[in-house]
Give the backbone structure.
Amino acid sequence: MPRPLPRLLAAAAAVTLSLTLLAACGDAKKTDTDVKAASGGTDLSGVTLTLGDQANGLQTLLNAAGTLKNTPYKVKWAEFQGAAPLFQAMQSGQVDTGSAADLPTLQAVSGGLKIKLVAASSADGSGTAILTQPGSAVRTVQDLKGKDVVISSAKGSIAEYLLAKTLTDAGLKYSDVHVQYLLPTAAQAAFNARKIGNWATFGIYQDIAVQKGAKIVVDGRDGRTSGIGFISAAQSSLTDPARKAAIADFLGRLAEAYAWAAAHRDQYAQVFAQKNGVPLDVAKTVVGQGADSLVPVSPTVTAKVQAVSDLMHTIGSLPTDVKVAGTVDTSAFPHALAPTTATTATTATTPTATTSANPNPNANANPSATSSAAATPAN
């Protein structure tokens, strides 16, 4: 049996913010002309962009694809265990951009966070699921009536939306189950110890639990979740011309990384396995659950997410029914990546594949959430 990730063993009642400067994100030998040319004429040499990430998802993707090399600005990464603390950091001005699923993003907007949705990704929803213990009598969503269900990671997570949507579809009320909230690492430990019976979770937490025998009651496919994830940017960052230019450059590089991952899933799974200390078969599952492109936030995207907002406001999870279209700013990422660019990303050296979960002492504060093949945001 593979050993759990070191981050899954940690007592995760608190979230650790780790800011790590990427040494390779600048090139001291670049001339002023080079720097300006790379950013449409704007000198970005004095800009430091702080990128919020969950579970090391975007970092793993970008490092594997090699598309964040030689940026004309400096990059810092801010790592979080869930979307809620990530958005708190954005609120306090510590982070320029954040990656999260649709509902956590709506929760932040509903709470008054001044952000804009600048890019989106879409996955099939299989990376979010309601799990039950091996041997449990729970077979269907209807069987959850009257039972306790633990949700990771907090109120307003994508796992909570899956629970609410499937209960509604089954003719049940949200109040028909007893909901508790636990951060993913704490829930993982409790589920492993059989202290909780039913768990709504996502990504690598879900996949490792299934590998150990957990049963999937239902997952987010077939429209049970939108599958949408967002890159959000602080409004204050978008009003700064140089910082906005850096964000636009970053989004282009991220789009190239998504395209690279979609075209090199096996190679990316090898990188993911080594970086996160999981078996290769688990990494392949996580990668297969991910999105394969970064796209502008279109009316089609906002319509899907509006349905999420409407339902969650109805059950009381969202304080206000967010009008999603009003939260969008496509000026930093107006067009999807051209097809001819899809396989031209500069790739990093791929580490040797691993089929055993060797804990990585250098890993960041949390394993991958639904961050998979193209780092589909979690929670």
